[in-house]
């Protein structure tokens, strides 16, 4: 009978260890692959988060965006909105232009940053031109049309230059020299 060599004894012991740990190694490999696949799926299926600049605080625009964001969250869809509170339209557009916001609620008469586009027009604001009635006994005629504003002093309500720029456009389109 041949005497087993030291090398063959080591081979037999090694194959017995492999046979003993083989199912456990296979199970650990399957669990590792499954964990990586689940982590990847979780990362891929996370909703896209869009930061939307809106303000000022307490405005109708902010209330609308908060309601839309809440509705998106309730549905658990592929998009999540995160409102960023600003002092107003100008700051919202500045955040959009600087890349600190993905969307912004802004007025159409403000200059948009060069690399942005309109996504949606949610509402249109209107302009009110209000002229006081002539005082009793005064010879001033009533202002009945925009052309009657020529040579008169006009007050503009609102902060910033947007309302003033809008008034200039209206006057120029009506044939009145701003």
Structure description:
With 178 residues, the chain is mainly α. The chain has 4 helices and 3 strands. It has helices spanning 6-44, 60-75, 89-97, 162-173, and strands at residues 48-54, 79-85, 103-104. Strands 2-1-3 form a 3-stranded parallel β-sheet. The chain is rod-shaped, with a radius of gyration of 35 Å. The relative contact order is 0.09.
Question: What structural category arises from helix and sheet content?
Answer: mainly alpha
- Report the β-strand fraction as a percent range: 5-15%
Number of helices: 4
Order of helices and strands: HEHEHEH
Overall form: rod-shaped
Total count of strands: 3
Average pLDDT across residues? Answer: 81
Helix content: 40-55%
User: Major beta sheet, specifics?
Assistant: 3 strands, parallel
Q: What ranges have pLDDT less than 50 throughout 5 or more consecutive residues?
A: none
Rg estimate, integer Å:
35 Å
N/C terminus separation: 118 Å
Provide the spatial order of strands within the biggest beta sheet. Answer: 2-1-3
């Amino acid at each position: 009978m041949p005497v087993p060599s030291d090398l063959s004894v080591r081979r037999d012991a090694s194959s017995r260890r492999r046979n003993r740990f083989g199912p456990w190694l296979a199970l650990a490999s399957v669990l590792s692959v499954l964990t990586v696949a689940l982590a990847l799926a979780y990362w891929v299926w996370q909703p896209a988060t869009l930061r939307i600049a809106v303000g000022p605080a307490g405005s109708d625009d902010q209330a609308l965006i908060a309601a839309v964001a809440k509705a998106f969250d309730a549905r658990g869809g592929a998009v999540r909105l995160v409102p960023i509170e600003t002092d107003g339209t100008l700051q919202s557009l500045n955040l959009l232009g600087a890349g600190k916001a993905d969307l912004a609620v802004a007025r159409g008469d403000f200059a948009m940053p060069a690399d942005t586009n309109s996504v949606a027009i949610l509402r249109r604001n209107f302009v009110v031109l209000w002229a006081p009635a002539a005082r009793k006994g005064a010879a001033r005629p009533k202002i009945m049309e925009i052309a009657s504003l020529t040579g008169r002093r006009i007050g503009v309500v609102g902060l910033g230059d947007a309302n003033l720029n809008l008034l200039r456009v209206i006057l120029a389109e009506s044939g009145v020299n701003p």
